[in-house]
Amino acid sequence: MSQVILNFQLACDNASGIPEKRDFIRWLKGALLLFRDYYEVTIRLVNEDEIHKLNMTYRGKNRPTNILSFKFESTSKVNLHFLGDLVICSQIVKREAQKQKKAIKAHWAHIVIHGSLHLLGYNHLLENEALVMESLETEIMQKFGYPDPYLGR
């Protein structure tokens, strides 16, 4: 049975404009179930202060960001289904959608899909990696009826 278990944490001051839990599950399924039929992921929605601190601590970047992905690394040989954590700054996601003139729900979907692919090991540090990852993101977004998130950049 195909399943995504979502541990959802709301740790930001303003919850307005945040998609429903079922939206997050749908987007996770769109990205993750391409690879395996069962996953568990935590999504934590935070304020800019928290994501800024996490970005500094784990990436050495002294600024807030829209999303951080923390892939779970198991030290045992047990096949665990927990994939990792996505920490998303709702304030930044909302601001980016406005600035880029994107539908807010489409931008949320893109951020979740982007982070999910990072949990699966995809990256965009090198140009060829970025092309593969962006192509997958676009394909998944279009399955949901959303436009290519990279158009117009």
UniProtKB/TrEMBL annotation:
GO biological process: rRNA processing
Compartments in which it is found: Cytoplasm
MF term (GO), any: metalloendopeptidase activity
Pfam families: YbeY (PF02130)
Binding site for Zn(2+): H114, H118, H124
Record bears the keyword Transmembrane helix: no
Cofactor dependency: Zn(2+)
Cited PROSITE patterns: UPF0054
Keywords, comma-separated and alphabetical: Cytoplasm, Endonuclease, Hydrolase, Metal-binding, Nuclease, Ribosome biogenesis, rRNA processing, Zinc
GO CC, one annotated term: cytoplasm
Top-rank lineage group of the source organism: Bacteria
Cofactor note: Binds 1 zinc ion.
UniProt cross-references to HAMAP family, sorted A to Z: Endoribonucl_YbeY
PANTHER family tied to this protein: ENDORIBONUCLEASE YBEY, CHLOROPLASTIC
Entry similarity comment: Belongs to the endoribonuclease YbeY family.
NCBIfam families reported for this sequence: rRNA maturation RNase YbeY (TIGR00043)
Known role: Single strand-specific metallo-endoribonuclease involved in late-stage 70S ribosome quality control and in maturation of the 3' terminus of the 16S rRNA.
Record's protein name: Endoribonuclease YbeY
Gene that encodes the chain: ybeY
